[in-house]
Amino acid sequence: MRTAYLTIDDSPTGDTDRLTDFLAGRGIPAVLFCIGSSYSDLEIPCSGMDEDPGPIERAIGKGFVIGNHLHTHRRSSAIPYEEVVREIESTERLIDGLYKKAGRARPAKLLRFPHIDRGAGGWIVDYDAAGACGPALKSLFADGLNITLAPPSPEQMEKKARIQDYLKREGFTSDVYPGITHPWYTGTEMAAARDSLYTFSTSDWMLNPDFAAHAHQWPYRTLDALKGKIDADPWLNSPDGSANIVLAHDHNRLFDVTTALVAHIQARGAAFAPVAV
User: Fold this and answer.
1) Residue pair 173/110 in contact by the 8 Å Cβ criterion
2) Average pLDDT over the chain, rounded to whole?
3) Exposed e or buried b for every residue in 221-233, given b needs 16+ CB within 10 A?
4) 39 burial type by CB count under 10 A (0-12 exposed, 13-18 middle, 19+ buried)
5) pTM for this prediction
6) Contact 125/190 with Cβ under 8 angstroms?
7) Which of 108, 123, 131, 213 is least surrounded, with the fewest CB atoms within 10 Å of its CB?
8) In sequence order, what DSSP letters do the residues of 25-60 get, joined into one string?
9) Would you state the pLDDT for residue 48?
């Protein structure tokens, strides 16, 4: 049975309690990458841990792992390095405080950048340096994210490297997802990243009604289409048995879509496992 690690971005929302109850009821562990402030750049309602910490404190009590998704969900390529650090550190204080309040030890320092923007925009990894793996990586990120695959400036590439150095100094890790053997993961900078990337995006966010005005831009417009994406993905269903990091979202008005896709992945034989912390 294939192993999958479920990771969920953009908590907390008004549906976080319902989502974590659903997952706990099915025995599905997950990492919740959480936003610090309700005043984020998301086009959808977001509570933020500063305004509504309760759902995340309760999630910790249920055994879910909490990760950092920056304070205001801004793209790291669009703000100075120093502001990226402030975004990370203010969110860290909130997470540490909630673990303390919940009476639990924080198991690991995990972080995922909003839009997977690691400082160089849609150039998530250096596709040119990835060699033969470059096309697979471009497809992975272009298919699951709202990004433009424009080459970054030298300044952006330098900022991305500085951010990784900062994460390393501060003890952030992505070495909690064992068993991934995809060559475009193990043989590229993905495996050495200090932030959490992914190997499969559910693209559930494309069905959020709050994004309806933009839906014509995106390739998946129905739940059946997203289930078909799961069924057809050669890496999620790879015969080599590689584990996968699955990306989904905690958005208001998206609960039914996200839970249906998680259940579909599980029904196809994936076993959701806790991260190795």
Assistant:
1) yes
2) 95
3) eeeeebbebbeeb
4) middle
5) 0.97
6) yes
7) 213
8) HTT--EEEEE-S-SS-S-SS----TTT--HHHHHHH
9) 94
Please tell me whether residue 7 adopts helix, strand or coil conformation. strand
Other beta carbons within 10 angstroms of residue 21's beta carbon come to: 13
Query: Alpha carbon 211 to chain centroid distance?
Result: 19
**35-86 pLDDT, tens per residue?**
999 888 887 778 899 999 999 999 999 999 999 999 999 999 999 999 999 9
Amino acid found at 91: T
Classified as helix, coil or strand, 86 is helix
3-state class (DSSP) for residue 11: strand
Length, in residues, of the chain: 277
Secondary element (H or E) of residue 140:
helix 134-144
Pairing of strands 65-68, 244-249: unpaired
